[in-house]
Amino acid sequence: MISTMYSEETSERSSFPSKRHLEDRTENREEHSKRLRPTSFRDQKVTIPQGWLDCPRFGQHIGLIIPSKVPLSESYNDCVPSGKRYNFKQWLTKIGLVIDLTNTTRYYHPNTELRQNRIEYVKIRCSGRDSVPDNVSVNTFVHEVTQFENHNLSEKYLLVHCTRGHNRTGFMIVHYLMRSRPMMSVTQALKIFSDARPPGIYKPDYIDALYRFYHEVKPGSVICPPTPEWKRSEEAKVDDDDNALSYREVQGNNQEENVQLSNDDVLGDEIPYDQEVSYRNSINHMLNISMQFPGSHPLSLGREALQLLRQRYYYATWKADGTRYMMLLTRDGCYLVNREYRFRRVQMRFPCEYEPSDYKVHHYTLLDGEMVVDTIKEGETQRHVRRYLVYDLVAINGQSVAERPFSERWNILERELIKPRNDEKKVRDHWYRYDKEPFGVRIKAFCLLSAVEKKVFNELIPLLSHESDGLIFQGWDNPYVFGPNKDLLKWKFVETLDFLFDMDKYGRQMLFLQERGRMKLMEGFAVEFRGDGWDNDLASYCGKIVECSWDKEKKVWVSLRIRVDKSKPNGIGTGRSVIKCIEDDLTKEVLLKEIKEIILLPMYVERIENYTKEAARRKHGNRKG
Predict the structure, then answer these.
(1) Which of 319, 334, 444, 581 is catalytic?
(2) pTM (two decimals)
């Protein structure tokens, strides 16, 4: 049987299914997310929230979401005229989840009023006055709604409320709409909410924050609604639910301005733990692997490994001294994935190739690359710009491409990821502002082996706006290999190793590498902390990862920097490889001499000649066109 309720704003009918039960998923939520805090119903002074009496109770449902003002416990009945009382009794058979956005616990008792009736309850504390919910709270809200939708076998609704159900509630619902319907604009999402819950969001800071967060141009036609009459008369009063910092103090800006950028900066926003686990499982299933961070790790190029350059066809590029990230692109957002297999959300846009009948964004596309900070000179001044250099594609829209040769992966990356972004940037008066994204995105250039000296060493590296610490050699026909990859080679100007530093009770240094998941003490190894900037108290570095180079004369490791992006040292295999390379002493001059011999091999001569002819044809065709 279907029962019917009426929205007080529109008097239109909304239908709710009959009562069914959902499994309660909130009991162990605290350990998964610090944003979901347990609440207790305290004996406080019973006062009605300002403007609550005349505020409409709830709005039309938006999908499964019902926007509402806070229902008040029966303990408030003496203060509320009988015709204006509003509690959870009318919802018991119609909702499966309540998300509470208030900053207090005094309005009702979730255990007795909800959980005992098998209704899930999630508390996301959000201050209300002159502030917007922070990004982590937004991520938590969207995840909770998505999880409810995915497990809602009983087809029940979820009720979302703040104090009066307009600003915080609307802000969260607009975020959800933007992430669940990725081609939607903020203007469209605001209208959906205002139609369902008139007058919609009526605080201008909230509306401006949404356009700013999603990097959109706010149309001149968008006008913030006036404060409702039921709220206006109480505007000067402050609820205990509304004591908050100002908007600019709590929100932050995705686009960093006048801030010194560093490779060690933590980027993006935290997401709920169980969402992180879900993404890991999805990636592992998509790639058919069961491991930790799936990124491919190059091995050091020593004299013995030079044979690989003779056996297979290789291209080369510079090795940027940045921070390694994979990036997962989904409909609801983009996620930077660090070496620890941890995820943080960044607000980016990656449209697919334009097709009028199927215009969409990437969903479960996995990139590999590195984040750098470019220094751009502008006259006598300079500015810092963060960029993500994409150098490989692992999966596209849910399909693994790891088995395909690198040449195919690189071409797909350029055609289906970089080109659509660049094409959309060229559209005049487009509503989306790519220049407001937290970093730029570029595809990394790879050069023929024959061009290493002239193109890479003499042209590319000297003109880079960021630091380079060597070269990467990529097999042109090779598949993507997860984890250590003996066919992916790196040559560095100065070879380094990342050790875990510690000291024993006698103050003696201990350096560790990793072997089969355990720390292996490297007997006889020591490190000197030279130069300025190092603490005289070496105990302060215990438990940290120290990147070190080798001093051949003193035969000792020398500290270069603390690797804040890593929590584990290099593996013992990597350590042996680096030490072998140090002993080989494969200098730049020796490397170039070897390359000059390698490119004379028939395999290289033929393929370089074919590439040169094809490049000439393309150049001629472009001129003709």
Answers:
(1) 319
(2) 0.86
- Residues annotated within a binding site for GTP: 324, 339, 368-370, 490-492, 561-566
pLDDT, residue 503, reads 94
pLDDT in tens, 134-150: 999 999 999 999 999 99
Question: What is the C-alpha separation between 456 and 461, in angstroms, rounded?
Answer: 6
Is residue 319 annotated as part of the catalytic site, yes or no?
yes
Annotated binding site, which residues? 324, 339, 368-370, 490-492, 561-566
Judge whether residue 162 has pLDDT over 50.
yes
3-state secondary structure of 343: strand
Q: Which residues pair with 66 in a beta bridge?
A: 159
User: CATH says 496-586 is which class?
Assistant: mainly beta
Residue with tokens 């969260």: 172
The single-letter code of the amino acid at 261 is: L
Residue 213 phi, psi (nearest 5): -65, -40
State how far Cα 210 lies from the chain centre: 18
Backbone angles phi, psi at 89, to 5 degrees: -60, -40
- The one-letter amino acid code at 266 reads V
Task: Find the length of the chain.
Answer: 625
Q: Which of 124, 16, 112, 138 is nearest to 66 (CA)?
A: 16
**CATH T-level topology, domain 3-250:** Protein-Tyrosine Phosphatase; Chain A (3.90.190)
CA 5 to CA 10: how far, in whole Å? 12
Q: How far apart (Å, rounded) are the C-alpha atoms in residues 461 and 445?
A: 12
Domains of the chain, by residue range, sit at: 3-250, 269-487, 496-586
For range 111-118, the mean pLDDT:
94
Angle made by CA atoms 155, 160, 161, in degrees to the nearest 5: 155
Contact (Cβ atoms closer than 8 angstroms) between residue 347 and residue 214: yes
Catalytic member of 162, 334, 548, 581: 162
What confidence score (pLDDT) does residue 359 get? 57
pLDDT > 90 fraction of the chain, expressed in percent and rounded: 74
- CATH of 269-487 among 1.10.10.920, 3.30.470.30, 1.10.1760.20, 3.30.1330.30: 3.30.470.30
* Active-site annotation holds for 568: no
Q: How far apart are CA 544 and CA 502, in angstroms?
A: 8
